[in-house]
């Protein structure tokens, strides 16, 4: 009974900000009052009529897909090597990839990327390429962890030995046997990378150029315009995060559990 009460309280705590965002998005004037005055579609109309919104959405989608592509190119081979042929050098690489982007503050990581890739004389300054690189580095641990967990649970080394004993080469055995075993981890990692990229603010604010403003930066700018506009801009971001989490959970679940 106590556990159920704690879970209920936690869910209410999570849902309360979403409810307040919905109230603000469809409420009237909201200044120094507990709730906004009246109901209006003014903020929603203003948001969807704003061309900056669509440009920010396109930028966020481009950056998220770019960061995902970089992660999908790096993580499966790295995770396979860590699972099949562990060693001290690979263990060090894993430690850096797992903990570096999480342990290092986003601000420090952003300044480092600006210094290395986007200096004052660099043609990459403020470009989408730098933004994609920043998001890819930040999201690496969230892709690597579930893929490694899946490969460890399914004995990737044993699967590769089985494939090579049947005549497959190491690369073919990894691609056709080992990698499909990490399907759930890849799906979970994909959902995590997209969520991290879409919602990232601090790092993006440091490395994004004026023409490459992402959706979270648009939301931050919205609070300088009006509370209702900012709430209307934030609500789709929250709903997208919920949809992304539910989709990742549903797709990654084994078929027998979905039946």
UniProtKB/TrEMBL annotation:
UniProt keyword Transmembrane helix present: yes
Lipid bilayer topology: Multi-pass membrane protein
GO cellular component annotations of the record: plasma membrane
Keywords: Cell inner membrane, Cell membrane, Membrane, Transmembrane, Transmembrane helix, Transport
Residue ranges crossing the lipid bilayer per the database entry: 7-32, 52-74, 95-118, 130-152, 173-198, 226-247
Domain ABC transmembrane type-1 per the UniProt entry, residue ranges: 57-248
Protein name per UniProt: ABC transporter permease
Lineage: Bacteria, Pseudomonadati, Pseudomonadota, Alphaproteobacteria, Sphingomonadales
């Amino acid at each position: 009974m106590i556990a159920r009460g704690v879970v209920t309280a936690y869910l209410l705590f999570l849902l309360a900000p979403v409810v307040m965002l919905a109230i603000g998005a469809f409420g009237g004037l909201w200044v120094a009052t507990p709730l906004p005055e009246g109901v209006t579609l003014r903020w929603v109309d203003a948001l969807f009529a704003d061309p900056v919104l669509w440009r920010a959405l396109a930028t966020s989608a481009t950056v998220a897909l770019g960061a995902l592509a970089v992660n999908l190119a790096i993580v499966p081979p790295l995770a396979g090597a860590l699972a099949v042929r562990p060693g001290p050098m690979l263990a060090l690489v894993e430690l850096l990839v797992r903990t570096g982007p999480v342990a290092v503050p986003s601000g420090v990581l952003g300044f480092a990327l600006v210094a290395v890739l986007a200096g004052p004389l660099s043609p990459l300054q403020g470009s989408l390429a730098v933004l994609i690189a920043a998001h890819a580095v930040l999201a690496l641990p969230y892709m690597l962890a579930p893929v490694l967990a899946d490969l460890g649970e399914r004995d990737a080394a044993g699967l590769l030995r089985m494939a090579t004993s049947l005549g497959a080469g190491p690369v073919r055995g990894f691609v056709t046997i080992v990698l499909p075993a990490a399907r759930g981890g890849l799906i979970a990692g994909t959902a995590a990378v997209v969520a991290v990229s879409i919602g990232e603010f601090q790092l993006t604010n440091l490395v994004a150029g004026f023409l490459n403003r992402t959706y979270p930066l648009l939301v931050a700018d919205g609070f300088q315009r009006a509370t209702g506009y900012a709430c209307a801009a934030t609500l789709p971001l929250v709903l997208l995060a919920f949809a992304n989490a539910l989709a990742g959970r549903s797709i990654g679940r084994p078929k027998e559990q979905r039946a």
